[in-house]
Amino acid sequence: MDKKKKYFGLLFLIISLLFSFMNAIAQEKTMVISKDLKWSERMALSIMKRDPKAWQIDHNEKPKWDYKLGLIMTAFETLYNKTHNPIYYKYVKEYYETVISNSGDILNYKLEDYNIDYINAGKGLFEIYKQTKEDRYLKALQLLRKQLETHPRTNSGGFSHKKIYPNQMWLDGLYMGTPFYAQYTAEFEQGKSFDDIAKQFELIHQHTLDQNTGLLFHAWDESKKMDWANKETGTSPHFWSRSIGWYMMALVDVLDFMPKEHPKRKELIQYLNEISIAVAKYQDKSGLWYQVTDAGNRKGNYLEASGSEMFVYAFAKGVKKGYLPKSYKKLAEKGFDGITKQLVTVDPDGEIHITQVCASAGLGGNPYRDGSYEYYISEKIKVDNSHGLGPFILAAVELEK
After folding, report:
1. Would residue 47 be called left, alpha or beta, if left means φ above 0 and alpha means ψ between -120 and 50 degrees?
2. β-strands 352-354, 344-346: how paired?
3. 20, exposed or middle or buried, with CB in 10 Å at 0-12, 13-18, 19+?
4. Which residues pair with 345 in a beta bridge?
5. Quick one: average pLDDT of 304-308?
6. Residue boundaries of the structural domains of the chain
7. Fewer CB within 10 Å, N- or C-terminus of the chain?
8. How is residue 323 annotated by DSSP?
């Protein structure tokens, strides 16, 4: 009889827990997001409503270490530091608890792949380690730093984008690697690596800058052997807004950690001013920017969300930090107004969505990506792709008083 009681008691407990779990899910799905909230929180709550676990973003079927998720974790931590609402910190912490083992190993990470993208997700670990003091997060940070120590470089000293893409520097890679590198060297190495960090920007500026437009080409092949590379300069043939956005975000984020007295600091601020002048020239009357930055409304080109958000973020933060003239604040506000009016849709329950996000773009690989105009406009355009979610929150936070 006692066994039966225990059995039915256990069964009742399991059923109760199951109903509680289902009820919690149902509440999340039916949650109403107030239109009175700021855009940053409306987007964050919408993301959490759709994907209760951060690793589920982009319809992932299982947890993984991913640069795009790292971008969103950075955005959520920025929002948490502004609002001090613990739900945003909890969302981030649960992600890192899932992908970092007790021994500090990183899920699906292989150092020997030497993929610069892998570094980006590590930025969120600094805050998690400060809050928890758990050794596993420090070990994960040290592992990522170890990758940078041995990461393949071009002959001129730039980080190769990936081991499978030797001798190539992409604008994307500046954001993937240098903000983490800057924070790590500032917090754990007394800033010993800032010269090397500045060199990454110097090489990109030297080799991808187009003198006619002031814009930066997506990538540079030092060997000039890639089919997509200009045989004289090594540059890819077109300007992709998101890649320039990655570069600009990298600049304003690295400057958070570079000491004011460092001799290279003024150089980086100058780079930010130069690219901002060029990017501002191509802002559409809507406030947005096109997928192929300088091609305007050429057939197939479209106003793209993620690049526009990144430009807004860099302009707004650049002004706030005193790197850019105050006039860029108005350009940032115009850009964000265009994003919310033209690219955001709102459900009856207040959930918001970001549209017209380029899902992905790169060079080389298989199937081969040739960097042509036709290539950039042919990549998939998605709704609520992570590339458009993280920068939306970052841009909103910078503009919200």
Report:
1. alpha
2. antiparallel
3. exposed
4. 353
5. 98
6. 38-399
7. C
8. S
> Is 38-399 a domain of CATH 1.50.10.10?
yes
307-332 burial, b at 16+ Cβ within 10 Å, e below that, comes to: bbbbbbbbbbbbbeeebbeeebbebb
C-alpha 193: how far from chain center: 22
Catalytic residues: 172
DSSP, collapsed to helix, strand or coil, labels residue 316 as helix
pLDDT tens-digit map of 220-261: 999 999 999 999 999 999 999 999 999 999 999 999 999 999
Residue 140: partners with Cβ closer than 8 Å, 6 or more residues away? 100, 104, 105, 106, 122, 125
Residue ranges of the alpha helices (H) in 222-352? Answer: 241-254, 265-281, 305-320, 327-338
Which pLDDT score, from 0 to 100, does residue 28 have?
Answer: 47
Q: Which residues of 371-392 are buried (b: 16+ CB within 10 A; e: fewer)?
A: bebebbbeeebbebbbbbbbbb
Q: What is the DSSP string of 7-55?
A: HHHHHHHHHHHHHHHHHHHHHHHHPPPPTTS-HHHHHHHHHHHH-SSGG
- The mean per-residue pLDDT over the stretch 159-168 comes to 97
Q: How is residue 306 written in tokens? A: 């993620």
Q: Where are the alpha helices (DSSP H) in 290-353?
A: 305-320, 327-338
Entry pTM = 0.93
- Is a pLDDT exceeding 50 seen at residue 23? no
User: Which 3 state secondary structure label does DSSP give 357?
Assistant: strand
Cβ(144)–Cβ(216) below 8 Å: no
Tokens of 37: 């909230």
Q: Cα–Cα distances in Å, from 210 out to 131, 232, 238? A: 44, 13, 10
How many Cβ atoms sit within 10 Å of the Cβ of residue 233?
A: 14
Q: Where are the beta strands (DSSP E) in 140-290?
A: 168-170, 219-221
Quote the radius of gyration of the chain (alpha carbons, Å): 22
CB 309 within 8 A of CB 245: yes
Q: How many residues comprise the chain?
A: 401
